[in-house]
Every structure is written in C-alpha cells, then in structure tokens.
Amino acid sequence: MSERIIYITRRERFNGAHRLFRPDWSDEKNLEYFGKCSNPNWHGHNYHLFVTVKGPVNPETGYLINLKDLSRIINDYVIEKLDHKNLNLEVDFLENTIISSENIAIAIWDQIEKPISNIGAALHCVKLVETENNFVEYYGE
Ligand code: NI
Questions:
Q1: How far is 48 from 46, CA to CA, in rounded Å?
Q2: Is 79 within 8 Å of 46 (Cβ atoms)?
Q3: Which residue in 7, 17, 42, 81 is a FRET match for 34, CA 20 to 30 A apart?
Q4: Contact, 107 vs 47, CB < 8 A?
C-alpha cells in the first residue's frame, strides 16, 4: 500500500485594523474602488486564520504533527505580530503592501512555510476569513 497523506487544519484568530488604499490615488478614487475599507481613519476586522498542513501519519504517535507545535509556529510568526495591530503601520512583513486579505494570506504563507517544514509537515493552505461572507485561500502557487 502506498503511503497515506493526511491534511490537518489549525484555526487561530486575530484582530487587526487596516485601510485599503493606494497612496497615489485620491481619497475619492480610493473610496470608489475600495469602498468602506478605504476609510482614512481605519477600521478593524476579527480575522480567522486556518492553516492546513499535510504529510504522512507517524506510526509511533498516530499524529501527522503535534498541533501544539503548529499552534506555536502560527502564534510566534503571525499572531503575535498581527493581533491588535494596525496592519498598515506596525507589521514588518506587510510593509509596502496593500493590506487586502489576498496579500495578507500570501505574506502569512511566507512567514510560516519554512518553520512548518522544519517540524516535518508541508504547508498546504492558508485560508483567511475577513468577514462571514468573504475569505481567501492561498495554496502557494
Ligand atoms: Ni476592511
């Protein structure tokens, strides 16, 4: 029988403020394109982050990885840097980025891919839920 691959997902949450805008556009043009998310005085979201990793089950433990390790990586590399922060102004790995869910998800991938591979799993998906109705998924392509 060929090796079986399992996928496992850890959810974490953070609260962040942001503003969607292009500095080279007027406030009017930003408002027209980005809507309320371009408010110059900021606004916040309660983000839900789902990190899915994949790999074989370790026959000694029955685990793919210990979820405590995955949670620690996500917290150290992502949550502590984002939670209760202004995502436009205070996050080193989001500098010079339009703070969209798309770009945040890609930046989160780049933060955690290597640490996850170091604990013996492969990062499969970063899913970022901004609102009940809107979420993005990034698969590393
Ligand atoms: Ni927003």
A1: 7
A2: no
A3: 81
A4: no
pLDDT band at 3 (very low <50, low <70, confident <90, very high): confident
Query: Regarding beta strands 135-138 and 85-86, do their DSSP bridges make them parallel or antiparallel, or are they unpaired?
Result: unpaired
CA of 37 to the centre of ligand 1 (A): 4
Q: 56: pLDDT confidence band, cut at 50, 70 and 90?
A: very high
Query: Model confidence over 70-109: pLDDT tens digits?
Result: 999 999 999 999 999 999 999 999 999 999 999 999 999 9
Query: Distance of alpha carbon 75 from its chain centroid, rounded?
Result: 11
Active site (catalytic) residues: 37, 84, 130
Give the model's pLDDT for residue 1.
57
Q: Tell whether the model's pLDDT for residue 138 goes beyond 80.
A: yes
CA of 28 to the centre of ligand 1 (A): 17
Listed as own residue / partner, the contacts of 136-141 with beta carbons closer than 8 Å and 24 or more positions apart are 136/101, 136/102, 136/105, 137/105, 138/102, 138/105, 138/106, 138/108, 138/109, 140/109, 140/113
91 CA from centroid of ligand 1 (Å): 16
What is the CB neighbour count within 10 angstroms for residue 30? 20
